[in-house]
Amino acid sequence: MMKVTYLGHSGFLTETEEGYFLFDYYKGELPPMDPDQKLFVFISHAHYDHYRTDIFSLRTYFAKITFFLASDIPVGEESMGSDIRFMKPNEEQEIAGCRVRTLRSNDEGVAFLVHCGGKTLYHAGDLNWWHWEGEPEEYNTGMRRSYQAEINKLQAEKIDIAFVPVDPRLGEQYCWGLDCFMKRASAAHVFPMHFWGNYAVFDRLLLEKCTEEYKDRIRKIEREGQSFLLEK
What we know:
The chain has 3 helices and 13 strands, in the order ββββββββββαβαβαβ. A 7-stranded mixed sheet has the order 6-5-4-3-2-1-13, with no helix packed on it. Strands 7-8-9-10-11-12 form a 6-stranded mixed sheet, covered by helices on one side. The mean pLDDT is 97. By secondary structure, the protein is an alpha/beta fold. The chain is globular and about 45 Å long. Strand 7 (92-95) and strand 8 form a beta hairpin. Helices cover 14% and strands 30% of the residues. The longest helix has 16 residues, at 137-152.
């Protein structure tokens, strides 16, 4: 059994038997947590909507804590510690039974693939199929190619839970990244994210023709703080 709590925007807390996995937390309230458990904190990049600089205050409550940060995230000297692991794109590190691999974001920072206790989690950060109306064709073509190249690296993985952007600002192209991910890599449970509080995006997603074959795996978020109990 796994538990996922939506914190807001791209922030999620996943709880398994091995501990807690906190992704891109910058807003919302954390639920009650066992301070004796392991806590793994992941920060994909330094954009304000993915990173809060006071995240390191969690050390006060958790003795067994590890931070995985994209290597280009600035951290003040007062926050540095041996519990921080900086990660470049296409790198792999292992600590406390948790194996973490990164992909290269086509925006900033990295995406995370996490293996721990026989479970696999994927958090995209800002890795997405960013197709913006009004941008030059070569820009959008480059975004498509870079996104597909990274997602192709996940084809051999059996992902249990994935957190993938569906940004309504992209217009009709808002679901291209999710669709590409689910058809090339896939996951048992997928949580759309980065939707800027526009919860109507879920009803829209479930009506899209492209999602028909996997809509039963899309977890519908309705509010901040909502939790989901998931079978593997």
